[in-house]
Amino acid sequence: MLEKKSERKETWKTIFIFLIIVTIVSTPFYLAIVNLYPSRIYVGALMWCPAIAAIITIKLKGQPISSIHWKWADWKYIRMSYFIPAIYVLITYILIWIFGLGGLSNEENIMEWATELGLVGIGTLKPTFAVIIGAILLGTVGVTRAMATVLGEEIGWRGFLIYESRKVLSFTGVSLFVGFIWAFWHWPILVYYSENVTLEFITFFVFVISMSFIMTYYTFKSKSIWPAVIFHSVSNVYIQKIFPPLIEKIEGTEHWLGENGIMFAIVTFIIGIYFWRKAIKEKL
Description:
The protein is mostly helical. It has one domain (about 70-280). It has 11 helices and 2 strands; from the N terminus they run ααααβααααααβα. It has a two-stranded antiparallel sheet with strand order 1-2. α3 (about 50-60) runs parallel beside α6 (about 125-165) and α5 (about 105-115) packs across α6 (about 125-165).
């Protein structure tokens, strides 16, 4: 961290400029999502707003673009950034099944999911094979596609903001601060789409800030934005695309399911605590 008061002040000024810019460039797309049809075009454009804000801020402050840490990471960090989110989503849904908060989806729902993926017509496709093929396609092609938009967010949050924040904050402070900003940036969508705003705000903030600790850890360890890009993409695909069609909702337990569900918040919180303790021990 910076010691001189003048340097710390300048860093906070840079962070403030970034936050102002990201707010300005994000606003038109939030308005489009809320007031028009929330198409992928608006969502994709919104996800690139942090990158635009970061690049503008870097240019204004005369910093090199290389400060975003574009270099490909060591493969051990790439592998872990794929498997950790996949595993914690799997744990989330196993716990949901174990505690009877949701049941395994029936054959009809699985085949509807297969139809959406374009798998129907492959001979006499069985539900089991539909799940396997669908999971493989989404876990590879789906993740690769997701990276195209997630990269925009990660250039801003993990490529720029965590490194700028690290000049004035500890690892804990960076993870909390960037995680809160990242979560708060989503609030217009949360307000518009949430059925239980208070509960979903709490669970969303818990899981996003918990993810922030994990992703900050891997970004600092790898000195690259790519583990965060992969981590974020895998988490989105598994929690939004792969597992929801495989579970049958039970009346009265909806608030335990999905990305804003209680169970996902609990699981990511526990894993986030583990990585927080790990980072402190390693003196990141």
